[in-house]
Structures are given as C-alpha cells and as structure tokens.
Amino acid sequence: MSAATPYPHLLAPLDLGFVRLRNRVVMGSMHTGLEDRLWDFGKLAAYYRERARGGVGLIITGGFAPNREGWLLPMGSSLTSSLQVPAHRRLTQAVQREGGRILLQILHAGRYGYHPLVVSASSIKSPISWFSPRELSERGILRTIAAFVRCAKLAQAAGYDGVEIMGSEGYLLNQFLCPRTNQREDRWGGDLGNRMRLPLEIVRRIRRAVGERFIISYRLSLLDLVEGGNTWEDVRVVARALETAGIDLLNSGIGWHESRVPTIVTSVPRAAFAEVSARLRRELRVPVIASNRINTPEVAEQLLAQGHADMVSMARPLLADPQFVQKAAAGRAESINTCIACNQACLDHAFANRRASCLVNPRAAFETELRYRKARIPKRIAVIGAGPAGLSAACVAAERGHRVTLFEAASEIGGQFNLAKRVPGKEEFHETLRYFAVRLDELGVDLRLNRRIERGELQGQYDEVIVATGIRPRTLQLPGIGHAKVLGYLDVLRGAPVGEKVALIGAGGIGFDVASYLLAERDGPQPLGEWLGQWGIDLDNSTPGGLIPPTEAQPRRQLWLLQRKAGQPGAGLGRTSGWVHRAHLKHHGVRLLGGVEYLCIDDQGLHLRIDGQQQCLAVDNVVICAGQEPLLELQPTQPAENLRHHVIGGARMARELDAKRAIREGAELAARL
Ligand code: NAP
Ligand code: SF4
C-alpha cells in the first residue's frame, strides 16, 4: 500500500490466493448491446481494452445467457457453444494484455426475458414484462444447472479469469430465492433451504468443473426492495452457504428491476447502500464488493478505508471515464469525467435495445468509430458558447491539437448545466462543470468569459467557427402572459421569489425539474436518512425485501404540473428515471394534469379547460416551462460563411435537445475538423 497516494486502499492489490488483482476497482457488469452479435466483438474488445489500459483491476462483462431460455432478448448474448469461444478470446486477450482481469457474467434472465421461451421458478408474470414464464420442471432445472456449468467451462476455454453468476436484480436465481416468485412445493421451493438449492448447486457444480484456480463471483441480492423478498437473516444464510459452496467473491446486488424504489439514479445519495455490504462483509471470509452510486475515488476510498467492502464496483463511472483509475493513481482525480447517474445514454439505451454509451463520454462503446485522432494540420478554431455542446467541441478539438478559443457571454462556463445543478437530486452536474473547467485548462483552450460575439465579428480570424449558442425559452401567446405572476423557468431557477401555490405550464424534463426545485426544503443533496424514509427503505432488511411504509411528505408548496397532450405528464421522460421523477412529485402531492387547454392568466390565477370543464387554478405564480427555441442570432446566412461555420446543439435544433445530444454533436463535429 503506497502512502504517497490519497487512495491507498483503492489502489492496493487484492490477492485471491491463486490470482492477484492489481487494485480494488471492479468494472461492474453493464450490457452495452455489443454482446449480442459476435461481429461486434471487435468493438467490444476495444471498449474493454480502453478500460483495462486505464487501470481497472477486474472487469465483469455484460450478461451472457447459458441457454436459450435464459436470453434477455431473442437471439441475445449467450455463451453456449465452442464456436463462440474464439470471439470471446478477443475480449480476454484485449484485457489481459493490458494487465487486467476479466470475468464473464452468466445471466439467466428468467421471467425478465423478452421472448416467448421464458421460464421461472413459478409461472408468475413480472409486472415489467410481457411474457408469462413457464414453470421449470425438475428436468428443466437440472438442464439449467448443466447449462450454467457448460457456460463456465466455455468461459474458461476462452481465457476468462473466472465467471460471475448473476443472482440479483430479480433475474432467474433471485426468482428461485424469493417467495415472491417461488411458490413451488417440490425440493426447489418452500423453505429457504429449498429455495437456495438451485444457486448453491450451480456454484458447487461449476467449482467442480473449473477447478480451484478460476474465480467464481456471485452477485447476491442483499436487499430485494420488492414485496415477498428475503430478509437479512435469509441473505446471511444464503451468503454463507455460497461461501461454503466455493465462491471467491461476493458482489452486492440491490433491488430488482421491478422495484419501485430507485437504486442507481442521480437522486440516490452516493454510496447509499454500502452499509448493507459492510454488514455482510462482517459475516464472510471471501471479499465483498460494494456497489451502487459509487462514482468518485474519494467515495470508493472511504468505503474501503472504513472496512465497508474489499472492492468497489463501478460500471457507469467507467463508461464515463475509462481512465478513472489511472487519473486517481496519478493524483489527477479532478480531471476525472464523473458519471452523473443520469442513465440517459447507458441504461435508457440498453432498455430500448440500443447500443449503450455515455452522456458525458460519447466515445463509450464507440471507441473504434468516434476517434479523436491528432489533427494533421492544426487549425484556429473559435467556439461560441460554453454550454454542453460548445464545451464538448472545444475540448475534443483542443485534444486533437487545434488552437481553440472559446467565447462565452456569461461569466461562467456551463450554460444549461448551471441550471441543472440547482435542481435537487441533480447536484452531480457540478462534477461535469468541474471536469470541463479542468479539461479546458489542461488543454490550453483560450477561454473568454463575459464576451458576447456579434454577427460577422470573427470573420477571417479563424479557420473554423463553431456556433453553440444554445436556446432561449419558448414564449407563449396567451392572454395575460405579461401578468406579474408569470415567471419563466430561468427566473425561478435563478432564485426569483415564488408563492405557495404554483401552476407550471409544460411538463417536460424542465417542468419536472422546476417542480422538484420548488418542493425542495434546502440546497444540496437530500440527507440519506430522509431519502430512505421517503422511499420506505429499511437498510436493516428486517422486513421481507427491506420495505417499510414511506414517511409522509410535508410539501412546502401546492403545485400543478400541466400539459396540453392527453394522458399523464412525464411519459416522455427517461425510461429508467422518469418513474422516479413522477413518483417523487406524486409523493409531494403535485397534481399532474394532461389534456389541458390554457385560456388566460389574471389576478385570480390560471384559467383553463379540462375535459370541457372550465376552471381557475387560484395560484400565486404561473411558471412557463414550455420548451425552447434555437438562438438564431449567429446562424450563418451566406453560403460562403456556411463552409466554415458549424451550428451544433440547441442552436441547431432545440426540439428534443438534451445534454446527451449536445455533447455528442460537439464531439462528433470536433473529431471531423
Ligand atoms: P420538452 O421536454 O420539449 O417539454 C416542453 C413542454 O412544454 C411539454 O410538456 C409541452 O407539452 C409543453 N409545450 C410545448 N409547447 C407549448 C406551448 N406552445 N404552449 C404550452 N405548452 C407547450 O422541453 P423541456 O422540458 O424544456 O426540456 C428540454 C430538453 O431537456 C428535453 O429534451 C428534455 O428531455 C431535456 N431534459 C431532460 C431532463 C431529464 O430529467 N432527463 C430534465 C430536464 C431537461 P404540451 O405540448 O403537451 O403542452
Ligand atoms: Fe453515467 Fe449518465 Fe454516462 Fe450513464 S449516461 S454512464 S449514468 S453519465
């Protein structure tokens, strides 16, 4: 352990007896979509290689099914035949040549599979899938065990350092473990001894088949966060039995995919569940891996130093920055591109069957396609606007060797990020701003703040001009729009006084954000205890699944969140985070109304019509969150100008703009110039 580093525990090797891991950082399993087709394995190898080169100790692949019934998707990722082994060898070699270790995750989706062949412990459909599972017969169970063993042996043949058996998040083995999904009356169901028979049998049989010098990690659900889940006593018994059966590592799983409790989105306090891993660690001899919302070396180091875990799992943070470990080791933690737990480009893509990437790092899983090659001829490049699109373009252009000047009319960089960071539960945006500030400095970008550029001003001075001036809020044509009680969302997020009864016109991402802002009691992240209470989480897991009645909210304001479209507001929010925002507002009594026709605003309030009924919301303020329009001032007008003018982000198209598109557009353009 080196005393010179601020992260001595994080960077300390871990000796498993037959193999030594170079540090305590595990890149947790994350399905990118590249796993599903063997012809994408070149891209997958490049993705893993970059993370191994960046110093990660142990990489765990996305999930691979051991048989067809275990597929996540029809023809989805699997390892079932020796014909697939050469492709997998590309992955193992890519990682091991960089000094890393890699485990194949064996994932049987059980009733979470999105296809008609799904099986489970009992024939009970999951609330989040379309297909009813077939109950596995005794013979089916034995064949499933054999499939897991075959998969592990194939992984060994492909050069993996071991396997991780996915037993959490509500997948098949979790389905066998919990009474919620296991209502069998044979030797695979009933009491805990029977319910855990399948996972234990799988571990024992794999151990026998692969020998002692092959890592077996088991990802166990420590807190199911669903009704009919297990209690702490059950978890403890299962973990000890797994240890006896021959595992080398125990990884922490928190919550099922169908849980109605958030476990990884940005509003979950950092390391919120580490205490549960710590409790298990005291019960076991094998190393325990902590996971969920660990996104900085400081948090990881603290958990390890406090003895909460032996290793830390970070999946998304390593999408965001493949050099996370290297930068921490070099004392450059401030240049880490921190994962903001938004899920917008990773999990939201994975659940929509699109290739996962990262909002703050669009190269993630596109390493062979989005390359930042050194420019052959360095150019003088002006970037106008230091919002997400402009920052991204400026950094990539400078990284490639261009001489970049970045103009910003405001007194700080960040554009819309400066608003996002004020929204409760979105404090992680501070990290993105810190990253960009450090990066501009490292790369020698000439940053000119408080500098508004007029049309034609830069003509002839630069080889390329990138216009990233962003958006302006949409103005509405509505009688009374000029009334004193009407505010724009920018005014509100910048601190304008707001009354106790408020109607918000527009229920997109910003409407939801402004509502959360108006409900918040304080600046800064929600304290862990309060957050646990709001969502009804019992970290002691003394009740089945660790669920208790949520605390009642005492909202400080009465809010109405409105949209013209029929249906419940919030349907267009992120797939894996939208439900959290909706549940948060409902918990605070916010009225979410669709199908609204706005009539006028006056001293009485907001007059509107819903279902043909006219009514007046007697509100103190009406906040307009009705989307944006591009800022067109600097758009090129002459064809000649066009050649060297590039318009990106919201300035190009405000519709469906988000930071993901802005950052990607900036990076893609700068990679081409
Ligand atoms: P948005 O998502 O396009 O929502 C605009 C809202 O305004 C809609 O509810 C729309 O609903 C309403 N609206 C549009 N034109 C209107 C008009 N003329 N009169 C009255 N209402 C009107 O835009 P946004 O909320 O400003 O968000 C901008 C971008 O940032 C979006 O891409 C969003 O996804 C992203 N963002 C995401 C998050 C997140 O949590 N993931 C958070 C913040 C922002 P109706 O047309 O039905 O009335
Ligand atoms: Fe993290 Fe968001 Fe990137 Fe996913 S998309 S890795 S949550 S920053």
Question: Could you walk me through the main structural features you see in this protein, from its secondary elements to its overall organization?
Answer:
The chain contains 21 helices and 27 strands. The model has no long low-confidence stretch (mean pLDDT 95). It is of the alpha/beta class and 673 residues long. The protein folds into 3 domains: 14-351, Aldolase class I (TIM Barrel), CATH 3.20.20; 380-472 and 641-672, 3-Layer(aba) Sandwich (Rossmann fold); 475-521 and 556-626, FAD/NAD(P)-binding domain (3-Layer(bba) Sandwich). The strands form 7 sheets. It has an 8-stranded parallel barrel with strand order 3-4-5-8-9-10-11-12, surrounded by 7 helices. It is globular and about 75 Å long. Helix 8 (274-281) links the parallel strand 10 (249-254) and strand 11. Iron/sulfur cluster binds at residues 316, 319-320, 339-346, 358-360. In the N-terminal section; belongs to the NADH:flavin oxidoreductase/NADH oxidase family. Keywords: Flavoprotein, FMN, Iron, Iron-sulfur, Metal-binding, Oxidoreductase. Its cofactor is [4Fe-4S] cluster; FMN. Residues 10-333 form the NADH:flavin oxidoreductase/NADH oxidase N-terminal domain.
Bound molecules: NADP nicotinamide-adenine-dinucleotide phosphate, iron/sulfur cluster
Share of helix among residues? 25-40%
Distance between the termini: 45 Å
Total number of strands: 27
The portion of residues forming beta strands comes to 15-25%
CATH class of the largest domain: Alpha Beta
Task: Give the mean pLDDT.
Answer: 95
Whole-number tally of structural domains: 3
Largest sheet: 8 strands, parallel, barrel
- The helix/strand class is alpha/beta
Radius of gyration: 26 Å
| CATH fold descriptor of the largest domain | TIM Barrel
CATH architecture of the largest domain: Alpha-Beta Barrel
